[in-house]
Structures are given as C-alpha cells and as structure tokens.
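pasting input
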Amino acid sequence: MKEGKYLDVVYKFEPKYSWAAGVAISRFLAELKEGRIIARKCMNCERILVPPRMYCEQCFRPTDEWVQIKDTGTVNTYSISHVGTDARRLKTPILVAVVDLDGATPGMGILHNLGEVEPSKIKVGMKVKAVWKSSSERQGAITDIRYFKPIGEE
Amino acid sequence: MKNRVAIVGAGMTLFRRRMLESPKELSFEATRMALDSAGLELKDIQSVVSGSAPDAFDGIHMKGEYLLDGMGGIGKPNQRVYVGGGTGVFTPIGGWWNVASGLYDTCLCVAEEKMSPLHPHPQYAFWSIFDQILERPLGTTLLWIFSLEMRRYMHKYGIKEEDIASVAVKNKGNAVDHPCAQLGAKITVDDVMNSEPICWPVKRLDVSPPSDGAAAVVLASEKIAKRLTDQPVWLDGVGWTLDTTHWTNRDLAYPEYVEKAAWMAYKMAGIKKPKKEIDIAEVYDPFDYKELHHMEGLQLAGKGEAPKMAVDGVTQRDGDLPVCPSGGLLGVGNPIAAAGMMKICEVFWQLRGEAGKRQVKKDARTGLAQAWGDLMQVGTVAVMRS
C-alpha cells in the first residue's frame, strides 16, 4: 500500500492520432518544403494572415489570395526554456520566440526556436532570419525551419 | 433578468500537491461544506453546474458525468462548463444563468481538479493545448506562453523582474493565514530572484504549484436568499469573452479579452469607475506577473502601472485595493478549476466579514473575482456585493 492508507492503480494509455492539416495549413506546409513561407490575404480588412487561414475570423468571409512573405522577421518576445514538454529539466535550454514575419501584417507572429545566438544576447526587436534544413531533409513541417538566427548589427 | 442572484454558502477542501481522496470524494467534501454553510440539504437544490479543467489530468473522459454524484448532481438538471483556467469563475457564471433566468431558485456550483494522477508531471497535459501541426513539433511546454507573455509585458512597459516578484511575496505571505493553503510562506523578493530559472524570465517562485482540491458555492434567487440569510452576497455582474487560439498574432502585453469580460460584468453591476468602486479583488495569479497583467485588463490599474501599486503596498490586505487577500493561486495552490472557485469563495467570506485572519482592513462592500485560461484567450469575471 502506497502512502500507508490508499491504493494507487497505474495505467498507461498510448493512442495515436492522424491529424488532417486542412486546406490552408497543407499549402503552408507544402511551401515550407520548398523553403518558402506563405500567407493568406483578406481583401476586406487587408490583413496578411500567418499562419494562413481560408477565412478571415474578423470579417468572417473567405480570404482571397495567397501571398508569399519573407523568411525574415523581428523577435516580438522570447524565453529561455530549461524544461521540456513533460516538465523534465533539459541539459541544454531551448530558445523560444514569437517572431513577427516581414511581409505579413505587423504583429502577425509565429512560434519558433532561436539558434546561433548566446541566450544573453537575445533582445526583443532583434532582426532574425530562418535557417532552413536542406531541401532533401525538408518534409513539409514547421521543423523544416531549424530555427531563426540573428541578422544585422545586433 | 428575472432574478437577482445571491451566493448563500461556500466550501472548499485543502489544496495539496497530491490528495489521496478520489475526485468524487473531494467534490463531496466541498459540496457538503457549501450546503452546510447555506443551511440547505441536497433536496433543496434544483440544478447543478460543475467545472473541471482538462480530462487529460485524470485520464478520465466524461469527467462531468464521472464527478456527478460527488457533486450532488444525480437526477437534476446538470451542466459542465469548461474554459481551461477560466473554468473556476465560469462555473458560478453558469449557475448564474440557471438562477438569473428564472429557471431555478437554487443552484449548486462545484469545481474540482486533481492534477496529480498524470506522470511524470501535470504540465505534460498542457502540451496538447498547442496547435498540433505548427506548435507541438517545437517541443512546447505550457510555461512558454507565460514566459513569452511575461517578457513582452516587461519589455513594453520597462517592468523589472523584482517588481513582479513582489506579487509572489505578497500572495505566499497572505496564504500563511489560509487554513487550506499549500504554499503559504514568508519569502523575500531575493528568494524569488534567486530561485531556479525554469523558463526565463519565469523562475520557480514566480509560479503557482500544481494541486488537487475542490471548492463549491450555493446560489439562490433573491426570494430564497433573503429567507436563508441576513448576509447574502449578490452576484451582480458576470462577464466572459474569448479571443482566438492564434495567440502569436495577439498583443501579448495587454489582455484585451479580460477587459471585454470586465466591462460586461461592470455594466451589468452598474459600475462605471472600477478603480474607485471595487473594494477588493481576487485577480487570477497562476504566475506573479499575471496578477499585474490582469489588474490592468480589469481596469484596476492603468497600462503598465500595476507593478508600482504592488511595490507601493496598495494591493496588500491593509492597502487601498487588497488583491488576492486569500493568498491566491501562488499561495493557496492551483487546482485549476477549484482555484478559480476558491477566489469566489474568498470574496464571499471577505464581504461577509468571515475571512478570519485574512479579513482585509477596509470595509469591503464590492468585490471582484477573475480567472483566465485556455491558450491565453479567455477572461471570466464576477462582481459581488454585500
């Protein structure tokens, strides 16, 4: 008996899921495989949306066209993560950031990792650029971008 | 609305890292306590609203149905409400719909959470809140949304980590006086600053602990409430809104969805100047910076001005605007849904003058409880009056 008084029963649940990426994100992933980042534009509010969606959630109408945006951007915010997904301590911290991408409407950020930078040198407002896997390694996933690295005189 | 709604009873269990009672047993304990405090029996209750956060903690699907008998819900109109961390305050909002609409005169509202069943750590359950295609492959942990938001908030207004840490010092200190608290402690700003970085700028003592626990309140229509007690606490305003899950497209320095929920509640309660009219506030504080961030969203502080109020002592129990006199999630503990309900219970006890050692110095007549959650997208707000 555990803890003296009450019993514990242990069970492990190991399901698998297969998620359809949908219309917008399937195209986004296909473009990542080619080393490009694509967004959707709503002609009504004129926002360029990334991650792309087939509808504008504000105007509540279908979005109108695909727009290729840049693989550079600005660090909106960042963190130095010493723990992994299951809250266990990591040997090497993960550098994580919201990166506002150039060519999208200001403030349209995506979540990604930072690399080739000392944690103490990261700053909000820092210009960064995507570091891509080689074309043979890319498989149509967000991880086709290894991370973003600083550019310019930061 | 047809009925003015009162809270007429409240109860809660101990909050602990691991409780050995089952989820149903915890629910029963809090529910029975709330009924006793209202002077009611289960037969007097017409409907039940339950709240519990992700099923992934327990590994039990249909948790609302599973918990039902411990919450007194058998054979009664029952609903489970769920908005992640916002659930605890959303549960009595669900109860308010039942009573304000005139459908029922009494409603039990019960929130329960056991985070401890999941291994290796309850945090693991939160992995599945992130976008499954674009975010999870990056190795996400729930702490990221907080550390990223905290960093943006600090950047936008030039806020120092030390000033944010003063909230953890206050709340853990307040919790020393709470009989159910898990982490009450007298600590210093240096203790927080020197605690281990988990997800910088978030450090160990900036964060509330995972917990198990349950809390409950009984709602009644005006007619019934006046028969039951000389001290009903009126639930005069409720508000709730959600923003999109596209959280990386959002201004992380300011919780607009909390502002919208707050104005909905304020308008309903006839409050025009929240800073002047709210006497005490149980603001959602899973992290120390969140209390400040939310005070601004709730219009209790100007943008970027909440840290100064914390440092100046305005939000202490003897200050002009006591915030989290209970000890909050940082001190009492954070069994997700039950933690939000604990805030409702605290405002109830404070407005009735029943908070014992935690009683605020000022004569508090109007109080507020707020919770927040999901993918940094929901605000739930309740305004209460004695």
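fyi The mean pLDDT of chain B is 96.
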